[in-house]
Amino acid sequence: MTRYKQARAQAQPFPSALQPSPASPMTGPAQASQPPDIGLLLEAHRQELLAYCYRLLGSLHDAEDQVQETLLRAWRHFQSLKDTTSLRAWLYKIATNACLDALKQRPARTLPLAAFPAADPAHPIASPLAEATWLEPFPTSWLTEAAENPETRYTRTESISLAFLTALQLLSPRQRAILILADVLDWRASEIAQLLNSSTAAINAALHRARVTLEKHYRPPASEPAQPGALDDTTRQLLTRYLQAWESDDVEGLVALLKEDATLSMPPYAAWYQGHAAIRAILTACPLQPSKRRQWRLLPTVANGQPAFAVYRADAAQQAYRAYGIQVISLQRDATERARLVTSVIMFHTASLVTRFGLPEQLPIPTSLGH
After folding, report:
1. Which of 6, 89, 122, 299 is deepest in the core (most CB within 10 A)?
2. CA distance 36 to 19
């Protein structure tokens, strides 16, 4: 049980001063005498706070921790909220402060392609770096249902793309918060100034600097965004071939789906590989060794607005495929506009991500495979 849920379970009834008045927009006449369910009020904002904290922190695990911390602080100090119509802004203020405090304790996250040169597959893969070094994938399904605002610079999906997040991490934490609030969530400078206890002029200056930095380091990706259940036939066919190639150890089948300059990276390993020859070599040497057959199962999902797969590895001792990580795939149309090609594969080697995506921790091994 989380600290927030423990606090809710142990909490005493709130004082009558927190009961909504008959004119409160939260209640109808029949509920006018009833105190609000504080837990429900706070929980209604969980998903959008998760996406906000994820953009700030670059980590699904850290975002969940800071949202829990935000809800716990809000629960404990709800009496200080004098106007419930300002609840959303108040929660964003708490969440922003919690994330900025957390960011003081560690460096910004990134991806191997942004931090290191391409590796030579003939050389041994170096030991993995600390997981806190790397960005983590985010389930696209966790984005709250909301109409896109044409006034914002970045759409909800683009603003969780790994390319955008990589560039975003180049900003200072405070600039990052200001840019997200202004250019993703469409807050006015005066509202951001109130949230950060600053002046409108200071916010506008920081926002200008953040935009200049981002424009230097970020270009909207050519890959096509994906939405759960909304893939076209061509994309579905390519992803089916990709899945089948992995599960049947078909290295050449996989390579045939890649653009010539496609990349393969594998956080927490710093090494990444580019081009057909390098990727073929590393696939043959590591995950798809000829001596180890039928090791992998993949389940489709969507992460950061891109097609993705939960990856499972065979565990013969337990007669099961056990969660291994999440692959995020970027796709691009070829020059003829008739087909799609895989432009990048990012394999996140973190087993706990699989259950965060709402998928099982393990899958059975069919007896027909002979394990």
Report:
1. 299
2. 6
DSSP assignment of 73-96, as one string? HHHHTGGG---GGGHHHHHHHHHH
Q: Are 361 and 354 in contact (CB under 8 A)?
A: yes
Q: 338, exposed or middle or buried, with CB in 10 Å at 0-12, 13-18, 19+?
A: exposed
Strand ranges in 98-210 using DSSP code E only, listed in sequence order: none
Q: Give me the amino acid identity at 349.
A: H
Give the pLDDT band of residue 24 (cuts 50, 70, 90).
very low
The answer to whether 155 and 165 have CB atoms below 8 angstroms apart is: no
Q: Which residues pair with 204 in a beta bridge?
A: none
Please give the Cα distance from 227 to 329 (Å, whole number): 13
Q: Which pair of structure tokens corresponds to residue 368?
A: 């027909």
Listed in sequence order, the residues at least 6 apart from 60 whose beta carbon sits closer than 8 Å to its beta carbon are 54, 136, 137, 138, 139, 353, 356
Helix %, strand %, coil % for the chain, to 5?
A: 45, 15, 40
CB atoms within 10 A of CB 195: 21
Sign of the Cα torsion 47, 49, 52, 54 reads: negative
Mean pLDDT of 199-212: 98
**Contacts of 138 by beta carbon, 8 Å cutoff, 6+ apart:** 51, 54, 60, 63, 160, 303, 304
Residue carrying the six token digits 């927190």: 18
For residue 141, the 8-state DSSP code is: G
Q: Residue 364: how many CB atoms within 10 A of its CB?
A: 10
Dig out the tokens for 242 from the structure. Answer: 């990709």
**Per-residue DSSP letters for 334-358?**
-TTSS-EEEEEEEEE--THHHHHTT
Sign of the dihedral through C-alpha 341, 243, 155, 148: positive
Question: Strand 340-348 vs strand 258-265: parallel, antiparallel, or unpaired?
Answer: parallel
